[in-house]
Design a protein that fits this description.
The structure is a homotetramer of 140-residue chains. Chain A is an alpha+beta fold. Chain A has a single domain, classed as Thiol Ester Dehydrase, Chain A (Roll), CATH 3.10.129. Chain A has 2 helices and 6 strands, in the order αββαββββ. The radius of gyration of chain A is 14 Å and the shape is globular. Chains A and B meet through helix 2 and strand 3 of A and helix 2 and strand 3 of B. Strand 3 of chain C pairs antiparallel with strand 3 of chain D.
């Protein structure tokens, strides 16, 4: 699947359509095999004890699947999440960024399916595992 | 399933363990059949256009399942979400609160399963449908 | 949502397109609010001990969501399951039929979302809870 | 995660506890990184047109997660599926075996989480993607 948008282009587009998340996320890698997104460690996402909250992990998985999909289909603002299944498996480490590894398993005409693994930076075992479906608007 | 905590008790406990969500949520109803939770309309949760974001809907479903479970098992701070499946079905209405109807389908020794339907206040059709599993710590 | 097919019509169609399931399932009720489908107690679906297997429960949930969707959209053979989330909550009772209560939560242009609760006949508490998404082929 | 049972041991155990699936499944590979299970092409699982049915794909994912878990925990017959999320992404090829690649993402005290990708033998793109949770009985 050739990419239509590179990391800089998709980041810029994300800031335009979701200005409220500006500065929360970064892209470490984006190519045909893998997207690695980063949720910066920030007190806004924290639970007491300094670990990242469940909703912040959901947000990272959701935005990673969105970015991975848009990189393949281009700027389609009406692309929306229709489903997410997420397993929370381990407690995040305190005080570090979270990383998401996203792989697009299917890019169809009307939907994409993306697999996402979340890690605390520097840890080998995943925190959470998610599968997200995005609905792609009709083209033309 | 008799309740161990009423709405006032579980609200107070929620504020103690998750002070960062203080003021975001309210409890409209809590009895053995049904919990109705409310996410107050608030610009922090909004997407451009004034509708509630996916992560805010996830948060509401997650906290509703947590409250419904704790009301039955009592103050068990280590109760954590292990799974969420959520279908996003319709766009939220702008400028209104969101309501969650939560029903505990199973309360086992080590886990609970809760069904949650999300609505824009005043709308008949659900926005989203979620199923959440919480892991309950061993009692002893 | 008015129905395009009644119970007899959709049963007949099911036998035509899936002859291999002939005689496994029955329809107890089909109207705009609710579909009740029945998996006949049959040794083909059993685990040792006489209880129904997980795959047989999945099959019942899947066929119930299919029937509930087709009753609304008519004979569209290319309608296919794209997602199922299922929570197995209790052990089925031995020697009885299984019942599925299916409710269509969303009927969109390209997909349907159906909530399904499974019961052992005569039991009050659900065995399993599923949400299924069907992809609906473009009409034209 | 060191394995407690090898492929021959877990196959033999599977035949003892689930005699009804005897001959349906094979194990191509079982080590600490990966399990590859095979669903033999067999008319019992087929839809008209010769492709494997959704319930047969569910069965393969379910048994693969069971085998991957038991290989790590030993012969624990009461280990049961509590959740499955499955995305059906492509139509199986006709007339070939199905392969499941299963990876245990978490092995906890009371539950395991396994990621499963399903393929038609000889195809590069996955047919389906599943995540399964098994509840592990208390030891001792």
């Amino acid at each position: 699947m050739t990419l239509k948008l590179n990391a800089a282009e998709v980041s810029k587009y994300l800031e335009e359509v979701f200005p409220q998340v500006d500065g929360m996320f970064g892209i470490d890698r984006l190519d045909e095999d893998l997207l690695v997104m980063r949720l910066y460690n920030d007190e806004r996402h924290l639970r007491p004890g300094g670990t990242v909250s469940g909703p912040a992990m959901f947000s990272l998985a959701d935005v990673a699947a969105y970015v991975a999909t848009l990189a393949r289909i281009g700027k389609q603002a009406l692309t929306v999440t229709t489903h997410c299944s997420i397993d929370f498996m381990r407690k995040p480490a305190a005080g570090v960024d979270l990383l998401a590894e996203a792989r697009v398993l299917k890019l169809g005409r009307t939907l994409s399916v993306t697999d996402v693994l979340l890690y605390s930076e520097g840890e080998a075992k995943p925190l959470a595992h998610a599968s997200l479906t995005y609905s792609i608007p009709p083209r033309g």
